[in-house]
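Morning. Coffee machine broken again, so started the prediction first thing and wrote up yesterday's gels while waiting. Chain of 292 residues, entered below exactly as on the submission form.
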Amino acid sequence: MKIYNCLKKMFFLQLILIFCGYTETSLLEEIIAGIRYNNSLIKNWRAICKINVENEKKETIKEEELWAKKGDKIYREKRKENGEISYVVSFDGENLRIWGNNKKGLIKVPTDDDLKRAFYNISSPLFLYEFVRFQNEPLINFLSNKSENKEIKFRGEINLQNEKCYLIEVEVVKENLNSKYQFYLSQSYGFYPVKTIIREKSKYGETQTITTTTFQKLGNVIFPKKAVIESFMNFTMSPFGNLEDYKGSSTYILEFDKIEINKDIPDNFFQIEFPKETKVWDDRIGVNYTIR
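Came back before lunch.
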């Protein structure tokens, strides 16, 4: 009788485990489908982004005009306080074009690293580059792709910023890097992450990035209104080759304004024309020339 009762308990325990696993899998599929659906509503957009960068040394405030269109087309324009254009970057899905007010231009077929360097730098955080180029596709891919070194856990529902959120934790263990992620996915805003915490530990030291995003609804479209990115670094050995310790922190505050969604943008907009007297290096054919 004791053996029977023990087997019965084990059977019900297995059912519970199977049911919980099924529930979590279904919930993850629902979240991914929700994010993908909301992404599909945005065909193109433009916005002014005010970027405030604070670190131990200084505070920098600038504005950029950003455009994006499905088909991997992106445009970035930076202006001086007097309204003069100082820097333009465009990518039409095939060719990267860069122009600066030093009257130098570049055309090339870029690698992903080239695009990151063009759209993401010390004064423009990775969050902005990934959102402009991909919206939330990296999150979809991250949650969808399963591997032996990745563990995904659901921590239930919590209230954050007066929003009901699902908390999902992900741990990825690689040979020289341990990464832990926490995603607070809003139920009111299409499962977009209102807060993301990323902690990484390697032989060089530790980093932590906390991104808090406020979303807004523009018609049936969900779009960021403000994002605060807090970045902390504590390196005992620099990944760039020297052995000096490095500790530091930076805060990026991004505010989106004058947002236009799904207005017609012609494809050739993402193929900027260089002004006269620009010295161009065309990396595609290995030729220098000057626009006359």
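Residues 54 and 280 are 34 Å apart (CA to CA). Going to sketch it on the whiteboard this afternoon.
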